[in-house]
Amino acid sequence: MAKRVESPAPLRRLAPIELYSSCRHHMGIYRSVTVTCRYNAPSPSQKINAAFLYPALGRVVSAQPMLRVGILKEETNEATFCHIKTVDLSNHVSFKTVDPVDTLEQYNEQIASQQGWHHDQLWHNTAEIPPWRIAIVEPSAAVVEKFPLIQDIIFSYHHALLDGTSGKLFHQNLLKEINYQLHKEVRANGTTSPTSIMQFPDAPRLPEAQDQIIQFTNSATYLIKTLWNELGPTKLRAKKIIPWHGKSIDFAIPYVTRTKPVDFQPDVVAKLLKSCREHNTTITGLFHALTVASFASRLPASEASSFSAATPISLRPFLGPNADPELKDALRVLVTSYQHEFPADLVTSLRGSPTAASLDTNIWKIAQRVKTELIKRVDTMPRDDINGLMKYNSDWFGFFQKMDGKPRKDSWEISNIGVFKDTSATPGFTVSRVYFTNGAMVTGAPVALGVGSVPGGMLTIAFSWQEGVVSEEFVNNLAADITSLVTRFHEKGLFGV
Predict the structure, then answer these.
(1) What does the pLDDT read at residue 183?
(2) Which one of the record's GO molecular function terms can you name (predicted)?
């Protein structure tokens, strides 16, 4: 008699913000978030292998419920997290040596290519295998000879499980456990005998749904305005100015994610941070301003009179009294977004900046504007936030289908996951680079900039885009403009020539 296969037990329904991503994944229009960190070994003989990694990774998985759940009924608006009793880490871990290259810059390009590949993969069998993976990437021999201690760990995951900040926190937890494992093996004068199979017979206590622990409130004015803009008769609504957005949303364009890194060295980052403080702004505000300056210089006024951009905002500081304090550090989805408008008069002022001083003035003004907008938004959180209305949408599949063929709302997005923190109790491995990217956003901005950094060290801007929506040349020009503006400021104290 055939043995009956036990179906995974349902846990809780996906919250609206989680369902937002599960629907996109099932439709193939958004697949993963990816955070890659560069790990530096204490010595060439102590680099990360499977026997060393599995015990450390296993402790992270045991401590984080969202890494050991699946998703049932993802093809519906009633998707549910489910209890996965057995997790085989070998299903989630791979090792790869990249194609032969000679320089660190070429190796970084290989990492960018790997990152794009991971973004393009769909998660299969999400009801039985938690949808996340890591890849430990080694440089080829020529690079290893010059940089014998480095390995990159690519962490890619379904956005219904975790947000961008959680990707950084995963690496912080993994580094801590790797260093614990390092000293455990040193004390034992040998290596442990690892297993990849983990058993979880008891259902995990999942982090609460975002809308259960964030006290969203919506004023009547905000509610009426939002519903009118979404549902009111087109003829009666005020005509909206459509900002530049690349190509309109098109589900027929193949899903191919491209990524490109720009690294800024510690001395450059230190000067930028000091100057941002002096000009009453932030790194996020400054890179929005530099992006506006690049777009304004590259795109003609007839094609791009105005722009719009998004900044994701972590909701971790806004947990309400119903939040379980034991789960406050859990990996999860706690995020919203703010939309910035860069109207025609502001863009025209940038295009008309004839001198280095006037360009400099305009860039800092825009950077200050972005910071001021974010401060005002944070000060009123979680009041009048779009997340507070998501529960009223009963059909996310229909919501996204209606977007096909329509203009995008944003010109770009900048998401800053902040500074990586090493919380290890003992020294050992370190992290020297954070490369954070969104997958191609079929219904979102045509270009995304992910920002990650290490304390006192490198800051990396990671550009990502959907192939065919904007050209590689366009993104290369954007990256070159931002690099030259920052380099010029570092050398001369002004962004302009």
Answers:
(1) 86
(2) N-acetyltransferase activity
